[in-house]
Amino acid sequence: MPRRTRSLAAAGITGIVLAATAVAPAAAAPVPAWARSTTSDRTSPAEARRVDQVPTPRLGWYPCYDYAECATVRLPLDYDNPKGATTEIAVLRVKARDQQHRIGSLFINPGGPGGSGTDVALAAPYFLGDDLLDRFDIVASTRVASPPATTSSASGR
Phi/psi at 61 (nearest 5 deg)? Predict the structure, then answer.
């Protein structure tokens, strides 16, 4: 076999081997011990009792942006001191289109710092599929741009 043909054959075989390893399923490789999660994604019973001692606020939803509902709520900055300083949070929801078959709420958190969670929820009909929009309320929140207030100044509103 001429040298050029051997080089092309070797390059072709190398390409096939590389392509095959690139598309091999991730499940085929065992997960190393250091990569396995050692933490729980559940709230501990003690933490749940502590947080549940703070009353859940009722939201006064009102129509906004033609197809959404908005509300604001004042929440403690520190749940260890729920009567201390608070902050105001804006909440927006796009209700599920099929309320009879609604499953629940999908809370969107775009991370941060940076963009507004309420803007992301408002744009949900443009990037989420019908299967989610039909069956879930899409909800997000954004901290209202104001300095934290104390309970005494918040009650004067």
Answer: -70, 140
Out of 23-32, 72-81, 95-104, the most confident range is 95-104
- B/e letters for 100-129, b = 16+ CB within 10 Å, e = fewer, are eeeeeebebeeeeeeebbbebbbebeeebe
* Residue 119 φ/ψ, nearest 5 degrees: -65, -40
Q: How far is CA 74 from the centre of its chain?
A: 21
The residue ranges of DSSP E strands in the chain, in sequence order, are 62-64, 68-76, 86-94, 104-107, 136-143
User: Contact, 86 vs 151, CB < 8 A?
Assistant: yes
Question: How far is C-alpha 126 from the geometric centre of its chain's CA atoms?
Answer: 17
Per-residue pLDDT tens over the stretch 32-62 = 665 666 666 678 888 888 778 888 889 999 9
Are 97 and 133 within 8 A, CB to CB? Answer: yes
Give just the sign of the alpha carbon dihedral 103, 48, 110, 119: positive
